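Take a specimen:
=====
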Amino acid sequence: MILHTLLFSLVFSFYTTVSPEVYVGKWEISSGSVISIYQKDNLFFGKVLKRSNFPLFNKNGLDNKNPNPELRTRTIVGSLIMNNMSYIDGILTGGTIYNADSGKSYPVKLSIYNDNTDLCHIKIEHSLFARKFKAKRIQ
């Protein structure tokens, strides 16, 4: 019985939630893009620090497809792409992520688990499907 309880506790601890501060930092996506996530008051935001190593669109580095014509000449690096995310039950949710390739924003959720706090799971919810990818913490 003690062994059973110990194993259950060990397995469960890997999937318990992390504190909000764990989300703050620099994260690299497999494409090579780097995003800095920071907290302001009770909300979380993300800013582009580095673009993809092989961008498919916006090769000039500008936000060409932004729905606001005044922002189409801004650089993608330095732009705010994750907005107004709240920490609820261990995940960041309720905010949006901006896709400079399409000029559209989508609902987004981020989750980190105790078994590896250097890996962030990102889920972008499109109208018909969800896109999932991972980001690793960098220094």
